[in-house]
């Protein structure tokens, strides 16, 4: 057991890292809060000395009063929820498939995981030009081959298209976590259930899925943190049009239109509030599996 002296030494050694981490988080947060109450227009040539006019909560009222605010919240939650559903469902199926013995199993696993290492901008460009282009995209040729009219994905089905693109990026991450969890499952349980005559769906529902609950929880928590700040895919594909303007993209757009850093900072505070609400919801509803 650790003694009082060893615990004190451990805290002393960890203190510099904890201090740097707190500074790294608190300084940007403090500056964001500070600028959110100011009218700061550096893009118009205002300097820090004469460009910081106190406006109180005017930036917050102006940002939330925008007609795009609540639709951006809705679009953010739809994209996050859609990607989570797709990656978890397909991730479980892929993980179970990759767990089966097959020829070239190592190569197949590498190919499945590879999309996770592609930059979001690059993957969005690939999907936009090679797959979803209504004239020369692969999906357009498939539609024409079956006698159908090509779909203009990024305008007629913008949100589903974005969910598809982002899911393609995050599916390898979910698959890797779930595959690791499946490989830790005691095979004797499955063999005993099979010998007792339990059907495949029953074995999956009562043995495999409960065993994956903690891994699924981790996937949901980690992906949600990153998906709430999705930006590059929207910037490259739709530019925020056709109902795809998320809260992060709205902040970017408002700063460019008004050239007011204070207004963007107020939007950033709203984004922090939204992230904390979602995190608290997940920790209460889903995070209970971590204590099981």
Automatic annotation (TrEMBL):
Subcellular location: Cell membrane
CDD domains cross-referenced by the UniProt entry: TM_PBP2
Keyword Transmembrane appears in the UniProt entry: yes
Keywords: Cell membrane, Membrane, Transmembrane, Transmembrane helix, Transport
Pfam families from the UniProt entry: BPD_transp_1
Protein name (Swiss-Prot/TrEMBL): Sugar ABC transporter permease
InterPro entries: ABC_transporter_permease, MetI-like, MetI-like_sf
Annotated source species: Hoeflea poritis
Predominant localisation class: membrane
Domain ABC transmembrane type-1: 73-282
Membrane topology (UniProt): Multi-pass membrane protein
Family per record: Belongs to the binding-protein-dependent transport system permease family.
């Amino acid at each position: 057991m650790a003694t009082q002296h060893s615990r004190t030494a451990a805290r002393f050694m960890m203190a510099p890292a904890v201090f740097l981490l707190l500074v790294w988080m608190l300084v940007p947060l403090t500056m964001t809060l500070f600028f959110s109450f100011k009218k700061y227009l550096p893009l118009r040539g205002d300097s820090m000395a004469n460009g910081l006019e106190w406006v109180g909560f005017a930036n917050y009222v102006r940002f939330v009063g925008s007609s795009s605010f609540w639709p951006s919240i809705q679009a953010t939650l739809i994209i996050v929820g859609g990607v989570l559903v797709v990656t978890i469902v397909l991730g479980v199926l892929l993980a179970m498939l990759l767990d089966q013995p097959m020829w070239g199993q190592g190569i197949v696993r590498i190919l499945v995981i590879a999309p996770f290492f592609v930059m979001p901008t690059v993957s969005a460009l690939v999907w936009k030009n090679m797959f979803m282009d209504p004239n020369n995209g692969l999906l357009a040729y498939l539609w024409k081959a079956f006698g159908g009219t090509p779909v203009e994905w990024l305008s007629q089905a913008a949100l589903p298209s974005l969910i598809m693109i982002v899911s393609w990026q995050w599916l390898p991450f979910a698959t890797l976590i779930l595959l690791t969890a499946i490989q830790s499952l005691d095979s004797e349980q499955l063999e005993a259930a099979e010998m007792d005559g339990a059907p495949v769906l029953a074995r999956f529902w009562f043995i495999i899925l409960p065993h994956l609950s903690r891994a699924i929880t981790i996937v949901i928590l980690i992906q949600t943190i990153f998906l709430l700040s999705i930006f590059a895919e929207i910037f490259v594909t739709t530019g925020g049009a056709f109902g795809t303007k998320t809260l992060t993209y709205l902040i970017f757009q408002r700063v460019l239109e008004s050239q007011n850093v204070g207004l963007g900072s107020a939007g950033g505070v709203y984004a922090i509030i939204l992230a904390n609400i979602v995190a608290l919801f997940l920790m209460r509803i889903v995070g209970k599996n971590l204590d099981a």
